[in-house]
Structure formats: C-alpha cells, structure tokens
Amino acid sequence: MDTHENPASAAHETVASSTRRTAAALPDLEPAARRIAELLGPVGDGALDGPTPCPDYAVRELLGHLTGLATAFRDAARKDLGPSTAASPDAALPVLLDDDWREVLPRRLEEVAAAWRAPDAWTGMTRAGGIELPGEVAGAVALNELVIHGWDLARSTGQPYAAGEAELRSCEALLAPDEDDPDRGGIFAPPVPVPADAPLLDRVIGLSGRRPDWRPGDR
pLDDT digits over 86-102, tens only? Predict the structure, then answer.
C-alpha cells in the first residue's frame, strides 16, 4: 500500500501474521484521530495544492483520502458493510475534497475513533476496501492509516507531530516485513533505511516507505 494506498489489500495479504501481532492489546484510535483534527486549523486554502509525502496526493487529496478512510473504517468497525467499505481507496484519482471538509473531516475522525472503542469491532470478520478481513486486523490497519497520514499532513503543512509509543508499536508490527513475506506482498513501498537508534516515529515512517526527513521542497 506504500501506505499510499490500499490498506485493506495490505491487510488481506498479511492477515495471518498481522493477526498474531495485533492479538495482544486493542489499540485506541482516539489520540491519532484527535491529532489529525488539531492539524486542520492551520491548513489554509492556499496550502491545499501543496505536495505531500504521498507522490499521488496534494494536500487536498490527502484530506479527501482521510475523510474517505475514516468513513470506511468507521463502518468497518460497526460491521455496516455497504458502499463505503466496498470501494478500493485508490480506485479513482484524484481524490475529491468536498467544500465542507472542515466540518465533515473532524466529525468523521471522532466517529471512527468512537467506533473502534467498541470491543465487538475487534471481533469477527469485517470488510474494508472491498476486502474481507478480521476485525482486529482492520482496527490495526485503521490506526496505522491515521498515524502515518497524520504525519503526512503535519509534514506537508509545516506542523510538529508526535505519536504515542503504543500506537507506534502497533504500526511497527503491521509494517515490519515478515520473514515469510519480506516484500510484504508488494503492497507497501520498500522500507527506507533508518538508523537503528533513530526515534521510533522515524523508524515507523521509514517502514512505511517514506523518508523521515521529507520536506515539501523535496518533491
């Protein structure tokens, strides 16, 4: 997915290993969702056409993608399997950003975090991106998407970004190459080498296929 993008397909390719890695404790999506909401205020209209670490996305498309994935993973948690969970997130580019995104995106972020607080969200099977997958895998993928794309948005708009260790450990487990599938099904971009003693956030960003030192002028 190169975390840009097909989170459901990535989970589908790594269901067995991801299930083992995420079986211990259920992550909380609320801090990652809240951080993204807090990043939105300084994003003026003039920033919407700026570049992001996702090569196919400008800031406006990253925001549109965040709105779509929050909706899809909210519905996946609720087992409300309909159009939002059936469509691949990269089925059509560019990703459209509605005029009311400043009201809709924060609300969707609140909803996706609330939906994954329900223990039932993490059990049984659900669907995201048109792929059937275990609830605990879908939840781990949802958290990963929020953490990584939160970093994307912060870096694109010149804002600081920090994430909790528990969130980052969950992302690290999901993104790490598996010894049985070192290429991770060809879904993620190749990891970017990062020093072993680098901060955990930088190591996770490197695993996602991004350069931790990316700046808008690099594009």
Answer: 887 666 666 789 899 99
